[in-house]
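If I may wish for something, please walk me through the protein I am sending here so I can picture the backbone:
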Amino acid sequence: MTHSTPLVFAAFFTALAAGPLLAQTVEAEAEEMAPVPIVETNLNDFLWEKRPIVVFADTERDPAFIRQMELLEDRKEALAERDVVILTDTDPEAMSELREELRPRGFMLVLIGKDGGVKLRKPFPWSVRELSRSIDKMPMRQQELRDRREDALRVDG
């Protein structure tokens, strides 16, 4: 056995350990991923850190709102992996800043990028699969994936 063999084994086992650790982190984030009413937040708090998904409706009883929240709840891990935070606004009377800016009419789903720009608007519920595809096409998300791959190669090498 050469002197470099222990280093190769150490790198291999470190890489193996990193996979489950990342999965545990995503699971923990998904568990904490409760929707937050928009009136309790400031979008600037998420700038460059999270991708807000804002779900607007005129009432919490709106069937489209209920369906959208079910879709988001079913795949929280996929959203946590993409640094998503879910914000809700079901009170048109409160007239939040974001409601004034985006002017939803009834139900509306809005995806906001980490840069604070509106990336997607939908007047009907969208699945997490469709949202994930849209997020994964974003340049910043592509860079995050490249950085993650480079980090994994550094651990392996």
